[in-house]
Every structure is written in structure tokens, then in C-alpha cells.
Amino acid sequence: MVALSTFVQRELRLLARQKADWLNPVLFFVIVLSLFPLGVGPEPNLLRLMAPGIVWIAALLSVLLAAERLFKDDYRNGVVEQLVAARQPLLSFVLAKLFTNWLSTGLPLVLLSPLVALLLSINSAEFVAMLLTLLLGTPLLSLLSVMGAALTVSADKGGILLALLILPLYIPLLIFASSAMEAAAMGLPYHGQLAIMLAMLLFAMALIPLAVISALKLNVS
Amino acid sequence: MRPIFTVVDSQILVITPQPYPVPTDELLLHGAGLCCIRQDRVLFEQLDFRVHAGELVQIAGKNGAGKSSLLRILAALVAPDDGSLYYRQQPLTAVASDYAANLCYIGHQSGIHEQLTALENLSFWRSASGIAKADDFALLAELGLAGLEDIPCRMLSAGQQRRVSLARLWFTRRQLWILDEPFTALDQTAIAMLQQHFAEHLQQGGAIVLTTHQNLSMAFTRQTTLELAYRW
To answer: Closest by alpha carbon to B108, among B74, B67, B139, B50?
Structure first.
């Protein structure tokens, strides 16, 4: 493995220099969630009922927002091409992208979940369920969006294509995550949903890095 | 082959730095019957291509003649539409990792990120190619970039960005260099310096394939020019 830390360090540096890239999606998430109580009225029971769907749809869209530019710069300036030619460092590059993408878009959502609980008047049992689904689900969101970004990197206006490609893959996650939160709201166990989410995450972790590498090679050739 | 160990004063063992043990004249890269088709246009076909250790191959030709396409085929980024490549007499597909590990490809794009400083770009490529840290300040100063180490590369001029990109050639241990238009945007001093560095690399048994529109001002001991004709 060629210096994974080098690549992570580089990505973190870029995130620090291009704050808009990751702050915009996070702000988007907060804005959507804070607009909902204003839009549908501050009726606590109604908000609680809708919370699972709202939280997860906002999370999906905010991660999607961050995905488009993920490989764009490095594709345009030739870094991707030269890493493909060098072969060996490519895996580290991809893993670093995955990790820092989660760090900059997934983790903030997890950290913001107490605020979300306040905005949507969620009780503590539902909050725990939301936290767990976000912890398991956001890495999967990152994996899928990195794959989409790699596939569409050479497309000029890849944004729409990316959304069309990736949103269907988000749907199983959306179903199980919101179902876990609904079960928690009704006081039912939700281990099953979490287990399936974990299974999807592990499956994606094993295969998606390879898919990303192939997609990058394809786009360079 | 140069000796790896030299006995000096019959007692002290001096290990001379030897990045890659190569017999000179070894056939490094051989392309047989290469063909490249772009947008229904045959750029070249039945092209035979040989690069030996210690040799500089200059690929010339008009715009659109297929110089960059040939380089991308040689760098194993794109498969040729016909023909095959051999690295040290073995099919490239069988020894792809070995080949990639001995190749330094710098394409038309510089490979430097505009938001990162010269120093950061350099140390990134250094560790991405698995080379230990060294004094990058000295290297950048040698390349005429003293005082510009710590500003983002987007503030640098095109020629200065090129210098940052090419700085990699000063620490790489790869034997085969494939360079697409390395002299673009460089001034006369930098071109002379780069050619001097090429000569040193060739002397150590390295090989260089490059495209350029200008004639090389320096005479290399072993230099081949391949002229690609523009075909309709």
C-alpha cells in the first residue's frame, strides 16, 4: 500500500482550502431540516411522524451535492491519469477519497443529529435510532456517491447523470433506515433493519473501491 | 553493469547508489505493429517502436498526428487498437505492474493541484512514488522556484507550474520516462537545464520518450527521432 496517509493528508489539506465544497452540503442539510417545521407547521406529532423520511431524504441529497466535484479537479489537472499510469498508488488514492468524503459530508450529519432531534421534536429512543442509522448509513452513502463521481468524471455536465445513476442505489438504504426509525418510534426492536444496513455497508466496502478504480481507468483511457 | 559494491582501501565498503541495475543497450520497450484509430481516422498502423536503455526517443509530427495517443499507448493507459507491447521482451499485459513501477509518465496536464503549494505537490508525488522525504526546498531552489515554495500553484505562471511538475524527474528512480511536451511554456534556461538532466538520466541507463515541436538543442549520445505523418 503506497502511503495511504499521504493521500489522506492531501485530501484534508484540499478540504481545508476549499471549504465551500463540504460546507455547502452540510448547510443544505441544516437548511432543509429547519425549513420543514416552518413549512408544515410546528405540530410536534406531525413532525415526529415525518422525521425519518425528512432526515434521510435531506441526508441523501446533501451527500449527492458533495459528490459531483469529488474527482473533477484531479481529473482535469492530470493527477488521475498519472496515478492510473503508476497503477500502484491508485487504491490508496481511492480509499483516501472515500474516507475524507465521509469525514467531510457523512460525519457532520452524524454530529448534527442532536440539532435535528431538537428541530423535529424527536424523543430519545428515536434519537438513538437516528444516530445509529446515520452512523451505519452515511459511509454507504459516501461509497455510492464516490462510485457515481468516478463513473461520471469525464462527463461535462455530470450532475444530472450522477443523480440519475446514484439515487436509485440510495433507495434500499432509505427504506431500511427510515423503517428502523419508525420502528423505534413505535417502541419496536429495529435490529433487523440495522443488520441489513450493516450487511449492505460491508458488501459495498468490499467491492466499491475496486469499482471506483475500474471507473477511473475507464475514464482515463 | 556498474558495480554495486566497490572496495576502497581494502577495508571500507562503499555502496554506490544504484537506482536500477541495467545492462546498457537493453531493449526496454518494444511495440510491434501498433495501430491507433481515433474517430474513424487511422493515426498510425504497423508502427514498430523500440526504446533501449540509454536512449532518447523523440516523437515528432504535426498537431493531430497522434503523438500523444502514441504516448498514452506506451504508458499503458490505452490499449492499442492493434499490435502489442513488450517490456523487457515480455508481453506488457503479463508484467504490467513491473512496468508501471518502472515508469514515470507526465502527460499533457501537469499533475499538480492548483490549490496546493509547490512544496505540497512535490512531497505528494514523492511519497506517491514511494520515495523517502528529502530537501524539497533545495530542489525547488535549483529549479529557480526559490521563494515560491509556499504559495498555491494557481498563482504561479504556466512555466513555473511546468517546473513544479517536472521537478519529479529530479528524485524519481524510475528508468523509463514518458513525457508529453515537457518543454511547453519553459524558458531557455529551464529547457537547457532539463536537457542536461535528461543527459544524466540517459548516462545512468535510463530511457526517455518525449514529444516536442522544437529541435533538441543538445546532442544526446543515443537519440532517435520518430516522425509521425499526419494521415487522412
So the answer is: B67
Q: Rounded CA gap, B128 and A83, in Å?
A: 9
Which residue of chain B has the CA closest to A83? B128
B167: amino acid identity, one letter? A
C-alpha grid cell for residue B199?
Answer: 543527459
pLDDT digits (tens, 9 = 90+) for B17-38: 445 554 567 889 999 999 999 8
3-state helix, strand, coil in chain A (%, to 5): 85, 0, 15
Q: What is the per-residue pLDDT across A30-72, written as a single tens digit (0 to 9) for each?
A: 999 999 888 888 788 888 888 899 999 999 999 998 888 899 9
Q: Does A6 touch chain B (CB under 8 A)?
A: yes
- pLDDT tens-place string over residues B196-220: 999 999 999 899 999 988 778 887 8
Cell of A104: 467531510
pTM: 0.88
Q: Work out the pLDDT band at A1, boundaries 50, 70, 90.
A: low
Residue type, B13: L
Best of B113, B168, B176 to disrupt the A interface (most A CBs within 10 Å) is B113
* Closest of B210, B125, B128 to residue B170, by C-alpha: B125
Of B84, B106, B86, nearest in space to B212 by CA? B106
- Section B158-176 average pLDDT: 92
A88 close contact with B: CB closer than 8 A: yes
pLDDT of A2 reads: 62
B chain contacts of residue A86, beta-carbon cutoff 8 Å = 100-101, 103, 105, 128-129
Closest of A152, A142, A145 to residue A215, by C-alpha: A152
Among B residues 91-120, those touching chain A with beta carbons less than 8 Å apart: 96-97, 100-101, 103, 105-116, 120
CB spacing of B101 vs A10 below 8 angstroms: no
* Residue A103, C-alpha cell as written in the block: 469525514
